[in-house]
Specification:
Layout lengths: L1 H24 L6 H8 L16 H5 L16 H11 L12 H4 L48 H4 L2 H4 L8 H10 L3 H9 L6 H13 L7 H6 L14 H11 L6 H4 L10 E2 L13 H4 L8 E2 L21 H11 L25 H12 L4 H5 L9
Antiparallel strand pairs: 1-2
Helix pairs in contact: 4-9, 4-10, 12-16, 15-16
The structure holds heme C (2 copies).
C-alpha cells in the first residue's frame, strides 16, 4: 500500500512538472494578440482607418472624386496598421537609425522641420520633405515633387532603396521582417497570409499614407456649417473671413485656383515662379518635355502653418515669406503658370496686398491646421 501511494505522488509531481514546463516553453500557449501587445501599442481592437467620419462636404462635392485609391488596394484597418508599424520601423534603414517618420513627423503635418532631410548615413536629400496629409486626394495619383512616381504604391518603396534616405535593398528588408516575431502576424491580419513581400509592404505603407486625411481643422468646422464655401463662416473671426476672401478671389493671384477643393490641393505640377533658372528640372525628369522644366507638384495647404520650411527647395522659412513671394516676388520663368502672368504686361503678377490684407491671408492659412490629425494616436509611433 505504502509503496503505491508513494508512486501515485511521484506520478502527480511528474505530471505537474511536465505541465508547468510546457506552459513556460511552448509558444502555442502565447496568442498572436499577446505577441503584438508585447511589442506594439496595437491591440486586438484595431484602430479605424477605413471608415472615416468625413464631413458631408467631403463626400458629395469635389473632394471625393479626387480619390486615387486603386481598386486592388482599398484601405483596411489591419492593412493601415501594418503600414503604421512599417512607417515607424527603423529596421527599414540600413543601419537601423531612421524610419519614414524621421522625415515625415506627425507634429509637422508629416513633413520635416529642416530645409533638407538627413538620411541614414548623414547625407542630405536634394529636396525638402513633403507633407503627407490628403495624399489620397491627388487625382493624377503621381507622387514626389517632380511626380516621377506614377502611383503611391510605387512611391513608398523608393525611400527604402534610396542611397541617401534609407540605403536598403528590398530582399534585406524582407529578411529582417521575416525574422521579427510580430511581422508575419501583422501580414496575416492585413493580407490573409504570413508571407512577407514587396507588394504587400508597398500596399500597407500606401494604405497608411492614404488614411492620413485632414478633415478636422477650424476651416472644416466652419465649412460644415455653410452651404457655399464663399459665405462667411460663423466660427471665423472677421480677419479670418477676410483672409478667406483674398485666398479665393479671382483678382491678381487666385490661390484657390491652384490649391483647390476643400482639401486645398492641386491637380497637377506647375511653376509658381520661385526662380528664373530651372536648376531643378522638376517634372521634366520623367516627361522629357521642355514645357515641364521647373514644374512641381501643387501640395495641399492643410497644416501649412505648423511647417518650418516651404516649397520643394525649402527656400522659404515662414508664411510671411510665402505670402510676400506671391505678393511681390514671383520671378519670370519661361514655364511660369499662366495664372501668375499678367496678361497685359506679360510679366509676373503682383498682388499689391496691404499689410492688413497680408495678415488676414495669414490668419486664414492658420485655420487650415488640423490638431486632431497632428495628435491622433493612430498616426503615432506604435512601438513600445
Ligand atoms: C531621409 C528623409 C526621408 C525618409 C526616410 C523618407 N522620406 Fe518620404 N520624402 C522625403 C523627401 C525629401 C521627399 C520629396 C522627395 C522628392 O520629391 O524628390 C519625400 C516624399 C515622399 C512622398 C511624396 C508625397 C507627395 O505628395 O508626392 C511620400 C508619399 C513619402 N515621401 C513617403 C515616405 C515613406 C512611406 C517613407 C518610408 C518608407 C519615407 N517617405 C521615407 C524624405 C524622406
Ligand atoms: C499657379 C498655381 C498656384 C497659385 C495661383 C498659388 N500657388 Fe501656392 N504653390 C503652387 C505650387 C506649384 C507650389 C509648389 C512649388 C514648388 O515647390 O516649387 C506651391 C506651394 C505653396 C506653398 C508651400 C507648400 C509646401 O508644402 O511647401 C504655400 C504655403 C502656398 N503655395 C501658398 C499659396 C498661396 C497663399 C497662394 C495665393 C497667394 C498660392 N499659393 C497661389 C502653385 C500655386
Amino acid at each position: 500500500m505504502k509503496r503505491f501511494r508513494f508512486l501515485n505522488f511521484s506520478l502527480l509531481f511528474f505530471l505537474a512538472a511536465v505541465l508547468f514546463s510546457s506552459c513556460k516553453e511552448k509558444p502555442s500557449f502565447i496568442s498572436d494578440a499577446e505577441i503584438l501587445r508585447a511589442h506594439l501599442n496595437v491591440s486586438a481592437e484595431v484602430a479605424n482607418y477605413s471608415v472615416l467620419q468625413l464631413p458631408n462636404f467631403f463626400k458629395n462635392q469635389f473632394v471625393a472624386i479626387q480619390n486615387n485609391t486603386p481598386v486592388n488596394n482599398p484601405t483596411t484597418d489591419w492593412g493601415a496598421t501594418l503600414g503604421r508599424v512599417l512607417f515607424y520601423d527603423q529596421q527599414l534603414s540600413k543601419n537601423n537609425t531612421i524610419s519614414c517618420a524621421s522625415c515625415h513627423q506627425q507634429s509637422q503635418g508629416f513633413a520635416d522641420t529642416s530645409r533638407f532631410s538627413t538620411g541614414f548615413n548623414g547625407g542630405t536629400t536634394p529636396r525638402h520633405s513633403m507633407a503627407l496629409a490628403n495624399a489620397v486626394y491627388y487625382l493624377n495619383g503621381r507622387f514626389f515633387w517632380d511626380e516621377r512616381a506614377a502611383t503611391l504604391e510605387e512611391q513608398v518603396l523608393q525611400p527604402i532603396e534610396d542611397p541617401i534616405e534609407m540605403g536598403m535593398t528590398m530582399p534585406e528588408v524582407i529578411e529582417r521582417l521575416n525574422m521579427t516575431e510580430y511581422y508575419p502576424i501583422l501580414f496575416e491580419n492585413a493580407f490573409g497570409s504570413r508571407e512577407v513581400s514587396n507588394d504587400k509592404i508597398a500596399k500597407a505603407l500606401a494604405q497608411f499614407v492614404r488614411s492620413m486625411v485632414s478633415y478636422d481643422s477650424k476651416y472644416d468646422e466652419g465649412r460644415s456649417t455653410v452651404s457655399e464655401r464663399t459665405l462667411d463662416f460663423p466660427n471665423f473671426s472677421q480677419e479670418e473671413n477676410a483672409g478667406k476672401k483674398i485666398f479665393m478671389s479671382n483678382t491678381k493671384v487666385n490661390c484657390f485656383g491652384c490649391h483647390n477643393t476643400d482639401v486645398f490641393i492641386g491637380d497637377n505640377a506647375r511653376n509658381n515662379g520661385l526662380s528664373e533658372q530651372n536648376i531643378d528640372v522638376g517634372t521634366y525628369i520623367y516627361t522629357q518635355n521642355e514645357l515641364d522644366k521647373g514644374k512641381f507638384k501643387t501640395p495641399s495647404l492643410k497644416n501649412i502653418a505648423v511647417r518650418g520650411r516651404f516649397m520643394h527647395d525649402g527656400s522659404l522659412t515662414s508664411l510671411d515669406q510665402v505670402i510676400e513671394h506671391y505678393n511681390s516676388g514671383i520671378r519670370p520663368n519661361k514655364n511660369l503658370d499662366p495664372h501668375l502672368v499678367d496678361i497685359a504686361t506679360r510679366t509676373p503678377v503682383k498682388m499689391g496686398l496691404t499689410a492688413l490684407e497680408k495678415s488676414q491671408l495669414k490668419a486664414f492659412l492658420e485655420t487650415l491646421t488640423d490638431y486632431t490629425l497632428l495628435s491622433d494616436e493612430k498616426f503615432s509611433d506604435p512601438f513600445k
